[in-house]
Design a protein that fits this description.
single chain, about 375 residues, alpha/beta, Rossmann fold
Length: about 375
């Protein structure tokens, strides 16, 4: 068996969680094949021309074929055309019929080949559920990928059930959950923040519900003397305008960027990790926080219940007062809460090694 991953995700402007998913799976496939006694000859990641800064580093233990290129208006079109032409050439040269092409995102225009089986992972149904008109192109690309696929992977049961509301699924599939992804190289260090803080991790787009979190903390008050620390992309002008609109004290907010070790430091020292999303496909930060003993306050949505069980303080993500109350309760109970060891045990149930084995099982079934 030979496994190839295509370039579609590497041309997305912000695809951190998805890229991390494929990095974890691809690097573990050879060991999984050895454990299961499945002949796996090669795993190749064909990122091609791409724009993601840390892609090569994440895939350093895998055969990674790709070169980062500068981004300019329309650059992704040129890169996409070249990447698809190159991968089509590789597929045409493959001998026999023991090959899997795993599409990393949606909308690949590479035509089907009888000697290659195709797999697509459905990461979430957020565009269809939260902004169907604005994301029509993405929904169509997803449909095209599903139509071309021989097998489908869903990252959670919630994602699968939401998918079934929009599409029929008459192909082999697996529900294969993620796991925690932090790659740590050192012991934990103090965080250079002068006050106790609430931690927000990741992007701040519309469905992430960050503006409502700011409004909740500004109007109902943070716990006394607490501030807000955010990771992810740098603050935009819109983000700063949101802070000013709700009169959140700017001297009580920090943006901190860094590697996995820095993020782990933040989880270790935060008084509360808050995850206010309106929708998600999985929720890896829940597991990251749980492993490091960080108290969790998060949206009461089905996928978060699926991932973390009852080991968090839940709130209605559309109710500002309820968001604030849950954060206050989480901070009040702190790291002595009975939920902390339960959450750590819950996180231990998720494994990238197990995910790789189950992914390989689907590949084998299709072949």
């Amino acid at each position: 068996m030979r496994v190839l991953f295509d370039s579609t995700v590497f041309l997305q402007p912000h695809a951190g969680g998805i890229v991390r998913y494929f990095a974890e799976i691809s690097r573990r496939l050879p060991a999984a094949a050895q454990r299961l006694g499945i002949p796996l000859t090669q795993v190749d990641v064909h990122a091609g021309w791409h724009h993601l800064a840390n892609a090569a580093r994440l895939f350093e233990e895998t055969r990674f074929h790709g070169t980062r290129m500068p981004r300019w208006r329309g650059s992704w079109r040129l890169a996409r055309a070249w990447n698809e032409w190159r991968l089509a050439h590789v597929l045409n040269s493959l001998p026999g019929n023991e090959a899997i092409l795993h599409e990393t995102y949606y909308g690949s225009r590479i035509s089907r080949r009888p000697h290659v089986k195709r797999v697509v992972t459905i990461h979430d149904m957020i565009p269809e559920e939260t902004a169907p008109d604005a994301s029509l192109w993405l929904a169509r690309a997803k449909q095209a990928s599903v139509a071309a696929a021989d097998g489908i992977i869903f990252v959670s049961e919630s994602t699968r059930s939401h998918f079934m509301r929009f599409h029929d699924c008459n192909k082999p599939f697996r529900v294969i959950p993620h796991a925690g992804s932090l790659r740590l190289t050192r012991s934990r260090r103090p965080v250079d923040v002068p006050w106790p803080f609430i931690l927000y991790v990741g992007a701040r787009g519309h469905y992430k519900n960050w503006s409502r979190l700011v409004a909740a903390l500004a109007s109902h008050g943070t716990p006394q003397d607490y501030g807000l620390v955010c990771t992810g992309p740098d603050f935009t002008d819109e983000d700063l305008a949101t802070l000013r609109e709700y009169k959140f004290p700017l001297d009580r907010v920090r943006h901190i960027r860094g590697d996995d070790d820095v993020l782990a430091d933040l989880y270790t020292h935060a008084s509360c990790f808050v995850y206010p999303s309106l929708a998600e496909g999985f929720g890896i930060p829940l597991l990251e926080a749980a492993v490091l003993g960080c108290p969790i306050a998060c949206s009461d949505i089905d996928v978060f219940r699926e991932v973390i069980g009852d080991c968090a303080y839940f709130f209605n993500p559309t109710d500002r007062a309820e968001i604030a109350r849950a954060i206050h309760a989480t901070v009040s109970c702190g790291r002595t809460s009975e939920k902390i060891p339960l959450a750590r045990g819950r996180a231990a149930e998720f494994s990238w090694d197990d995910a790789a084995e189950r992914t390989l099982g689907l590949y084998q079934e299709l072949l």
